[in-house]
């Protein structure tokens, strides 16, 4: 085992000094906070990525520098494991430990010992960043970290989170039976658009889809995508400004649409009634659809609507292919899924509820032959198990109709980015289903009616005082609070409310839904008030709506 080059580490960790009095935490989305305090974290994450690759015998690890849908001044970093999945949970602890260590060298020695890492192994890392202004400096700090272990590193430049995940998986599966595709952006776009073109071949031409790119990196990817799509799907790109300071995710993008349940003002005179529109988030892994109805009212088609559309379509294809006894399609949601979507899906597929966070959804989806998972906020994908992919490849259909359905299923395995939720791939998937069903947004929306709902944030002294069970649907701490929430929820028709601490922000989130809009709002604010009071908030700062 070659020793650590402690002199280099000392020198560089001096350059990338850790700020005092800040505690960093590798959470569900990696490290995420203000971009201007992350320099030391990026340097240390570079070293960690090298160690992770050595631990995995030199397989390529991904590093993505992004703060997704968060404000432009924020930034973050997360590691991607070899098949494009999230970093293994036990390593999140190492990440946090290294980021906070006063003595980096001794912390590194601990990690190396604890994880039993052989430093003489090779290490490979591929990294990318979104369009945030703090990105270049943070990438430079990351590169210094990568130098410490002489990592063989590849800069994937400015690209989307899902493309980085795709690259990681493509690099690590190159030349194997499970080869995921060419390890380049071109490979990504060709794979996806070739499958899309086959899936929509012979369908009537679609009217133009308007894409809100959140003024982020999705704009760059969408421009490229449109070239590969040619006339197979007409698209119009909006909010593509990646250079004006302050515009990223500002009053636009998937998170704005989901949290405000409104059309981004910049699209007001652009989206025609009945036209399909969609919003990406700042790193293009979330997708929200919407349209304006005949009265000009905004109608949102969120992750739940996508899950129901896609889940039932794939279920039908499996049936048409004559494979329903061999391939079980299931769906995974979180407690944030609209109750109406859960009802709709449960009548068609097995549905599981898991804790918030992509890794929980992803793992649960792996337990189905085909697992459809989407968070209500528009992050999700579909996983085909390796056995299912083999089965599709080997299956001999007995009728032309079965043959057609089989080909569609195989093309879906190529269209869908199975490494991670991918707004562009999900968007093409939605477009395929709409083309097959000959649906506009209106028909899609009419499959079921969302229960009105409201999500509220509450700032409390210590969010760790809130502990949950049953996939976060019930609070076990603070004691007694759950019973009071239920007591409130029972007063409203279709009332449901739950409370959990956020994994990405220092807040507690309150969700409520009910049959009537005003009641959903009232329930949310009453529960929020309850949380605020129970958690000992300062009465002077108790938000007015809670009263
Ligand atoms: P937290 O902050 O733990 O609620 C948020 C989203 C998650 C997930 C993560 C990662 C909601 C209510 N929560 O988590 O769904 O996307 O961010 O980005 O949307
Ligand atoms: Zn994102």
Question: Any idea what the CATH superfamily of the largest domain is called?
Answer: Alpha-D-Glucose-1,6-Bisphosphate, subunit A, domain 3
Task: Name the beta content range.
Answer: 15-25%
CATH architecture of the largest domain: 3-Layer(aba) Sandwich
Ligand identities = 2-acetamido-2-deoxy-1-O-phosphono-alpha-D-galactopyranose, zinc ion
- Show unreliable segments: none
Q: Trace the largest sheet across and list its strands.
A: 1-3-2-4-5
Radius of gyration: 23 Å
List the helices and strands and how they pair.
Blueprint: H1 6-15, E1 31-34, H2 39-55, E2 60-65, E3 74-80, H3 89-100, H4 104-114, E4 124-129, H5 135-148, E5 152-158, H6 161-173, H7 185-200, E6 209-212, H8 217-229, E7 235-238, H9 253-260, E8 277-280, E9 287-292, E10 298-301, H10 303-320, E11 329-334, H11 339-346, E12 351-354, H12 358-365, E13 370-374, E14 380-384, H13 386-394, H14 400-415, H15 423-437, H16 441-445, E15 453-458, E16 467-469, E17 474-477, H17 481-489, E18 496-501, E19 508-513, H18 517-534
Parallel strand pairs: 2-4, 4-5, 6-7, 6-8, 11-12, 11-13
Antiparallel strand pairs: 1-3, 2-3, 8-9, 9-10, 13-14, 15-19, 16-17, 18-19
Question: Key features?
Answer:
Alpha-D-Glucose-1,6-Bisphosphate, Chain A, domain 3, 18% strand, binds zinc ion, alpha/beta, 5-stranded mixed sheet, single chain, 547 residues, binds 2-acetamido-2-deoxy-1-O-phosphono-alpha-D-galactopyranose, globular, 4 domains, 18 helices
Description:
Residues 185-287, 302-439 form the Phosphoacetylglucosamine mutase AMG1 domain. Pathway: Nucleotide-sugar biosynthesis; UDP-N-acetyl-alpha-D-glucosamine biosynthesis; N-acetyl-alpha-D-glucosamine 1-phosphate from alpha-D-glucosamine 6-phosphate (route I): step 2/2. Mg(2+) binds at residues 68, 281, 283, 285. Residues 455-528 form the Alpha-D-phosphohexomutase C-terminal domain. The mean pLDDT is 95. The protein has 547 residues and is an alpha/beta fold. The protein has a 5-stranded mixed β-sheet with strand order 1-3-2-4-5, with helices on both faces. A 5-stranded mixed β-sheet has the order 7-6-8-9-10. A 4-stranded mixed β-sheet has the order 12-11-13-14, with helices on both faces. Strand 18 (496-501) and strand 19 (508-513) form a beta hairpin. It folds into 4 domains: 6-158, Alpha-D-Glucose-1,6-Bisphosphate, subunit A, domain 3 (Alpha-D-Glucose-1,6-Bisphosphate, Chain A, domain 3), CATH 3.40.120; 186-299, 3-Layer(aba) Sandwich (Alpha-D-Glucose-1,6-Bisphosphate, Chain A, domain 3), CATH 3.40.120; 303-445, 3-Layer(aba) Sandwich (Alpha-D-Glucose-1,6-Bisphosphate, Chain A, domain 3), CATH 3.40.120; 453-546, TATA-Binding Protein, CATH 3.30.310. It has helices at residues 6-15, 39-55, 89-100, 104-114, 135-148, 161-173, 185-200, 217-229, 253-260, 303-320, 339-346, 358-365, 386-394, 400-415, 423-437, 441-445, 481-489, 517-534; strands at residues 31-34, 60-65, 74-80, 124-129, 152-158, 209-212, 235-238, 277-280, 287-292, 298-301, 329-334, 351-354, 370-374, 380-384, 453-458, 467-469, 474-477, 496-501, 508-513. It has 18 helices and 19 strands. It binds 2-acetamido-2-deoxy-1-O-phosphono-alpha-D-galactopyranose and zinc ion. Residues 68-69, 281, 283, 285-286 line the site of zinc ion.
